[in-house]
Amino acid sequence: MGVCSERRQTACSLAIGAGLLVLTAALWPRAGNFAWLPLFPALFSLGWGLGAWAGGALGVITGVAATAAGMDPALVPLVVVLLALSGFAGTYLRRRLEALNHENRGLALLGVVGEAATESTREDRLIQEVAQRAATRAGYTMAVIFGPEEGAIHPLAVGLARGILWPEMGGSARVSHRKRQGRAAWDLRSLKTGFAAPAVERGETARATLGRRRPEHPDAFENLAWALGARALLAVPIRRRKRVWGYLVLAADDPGAFDEGERRVVEEAVRMLGQALDRLKLEHEVAELSYSDPLTGVLNRRGFFDRGRKLLKYVRENERKAAVIYLDLNHFKDVNDTHGHAVGDEVLRQVADRLVSAVRSRDLVARLGGDEFAALLDLDSMHVVENFLSRLMRVLKRPFTVGEHKFHLDASTGVAVYPVDGEDLAELLRKSDSAMFRAKREGKRVAFYNPQADEALARRFQLERELKSAIENRTIRVVYQPVRRYPGGEVVFLEALARWKEPPEVFVPLAEEIGLAWELDRLVLEEVLKQLAAWQAYGRPLVSVNISTRSLLEARLLPFLEETLAAYQLPPGSLALELPESPLEQAHTLELLAKLWRMGVRLLIDDFGVGFLSLAQIKDLPFDFIELPKDFVKELEENTGALAVAEAVRALGERAGVAVVAEGVETEEELSTLLQLGYGLFKGHYFGPALTAQEAEPLLKEASA
User: Fold this and answer.
1) Mean of pLDDT values over 108-118
2) Residue 489 and residue 74: Cα distance in Å, rounded?
3) C-alpha distances out from residue 494 to 320, 404, 485, 543, 652, Å
4) What does the pLDDT average to over 442-453?
5) What is the DSSP secondary-structure string of 473-486?
6) Which of 68, 392, 454, 483 is 20 to 30 A distant from 642 in Cα terms?
């Protein structure tokens, strides 16, 4: 019977049995008592096709007929028993074989679920693969997975074994079946399962058998199954996290399908499916966490590259354009340094929220680190970029409120366009970063990538890396510029100056821009204090060190000075700090100055006159020196305004009881003019170049003699 398909086994067995009966009748006149031998396989086939009782009854009838035909009466009982057993044996073996086939079909489904669970990386893909393979590889007529969507249960995937011309979800399925109806169409999304709903709601498996009549409801799942020739249906609830989430409905073309053995294996397969769906959901949640910035909730750098490459692939396949926007907040570090990281973090969260509000749902927003963000836009036209930048500037213009604090922040933004500026996301991000730095350097809000500017920016990046390496490897040198009293030439103190392969006007501002100002100042302070310890034999000379605005806001400055001065056993009065004028009005800085003054550290206002300090403030602040900027010194001969400023600064220092130093003196004419204005302290190349520590020692010996 294995040569016949399961749907036609009954017809096959009856045909074979009838054929053997005809053969028996033909052999009877010649074979006599041996003619009944073909009856055994004949009745076995009939029992296979008609059932045990029919096979047994035919055996009895055939025995009676054989007796009437002249068979030896002594053999009749034996023949009747053997023929009846043949019928029963056919029925029993068919049932056992059907049960085995059903169980094997369930095991095939179990394998299908395991295979799909191993291969699939998304829930929707797993659902589709299981439904499709259950029909095409496990041998079911149809498989449908129902699940929740938009608050209701809908078919999420449909798998069909045959008769389907258009089986995709969202379209309609056209079915051709010669025994049911000619042609019909169903919208797969509208399928309903009336027979399964009550049982599934209770978390139970439901089975149904389809008769010869068409089901009443035209949009029901049973109607489509009936049109495909199915005779039996099984619905098994899918449990996720111990709750019924949906169900798998299978259709088979034999009415005896879904017996206990098959049902048990199918339920195990569905249990495995639920576990696989839970695993994929958990993996997705973990991936979302690994792709998300924990502070702001937008994508992190890893997530931006993963999702961004997929978006670029879509853009490439559809011959569209895209833009990478690189954004850096200006002066955000001041927020952290002045108000603390908790306030800064809240500002970053608000920035991320506003960025998300400025893009469309299909665009990407990421925080790349610190105060740097990026967006990837799918472009219908370049107007999308213009509209985004307009919205971005508008949302960033509003003040950021954190508790009682309000902040006004702007941003420097760089733009690189796919495929004009590059085809790889990493390349586009690098070029938009390049454009952003150009915008920041030129004081613009937005800059588009310019290939001609890329070389200069590459040089800047190289310079940043080299400066960081120089600070880490302590290859920054320190030289000493004498500050002299004139006339006489007495050395009053030495100004420590950092030297590198680039001039100070290049690398010192660069260190501030890239957040290395404190590291640079700390290195110079360490070198100076170490040298002061070696120079104590020369009468404890005074050395001044320039301190940047960033370092003044650095909480580690005061503890560092206290610890290092104590470690080298230095009096605080041997160190002077040259401070920029701009941050001296802030409460935090005034508190720091008071602490430094109580320690005994000397203080000097560098480049006085470029800020907004008044005479009253100079009088109240604990300063020992102020410096006349070299820009005024250079213009003394040509600019009467500069001459007036120089005279006013000297008078201001005298009234406030603060010594005034004229810096940048390079010519005899400048010195003569400053002497006429009453200046007595000078530094500059007129008195010689800056000296190494070894070269400065003779001056210190002379001063201490």
Assistant:
1) 89
2) 151
3) 64, 45, 12, 5, 24
4) 84
5) TT--EEEEEEEEET
6) 483
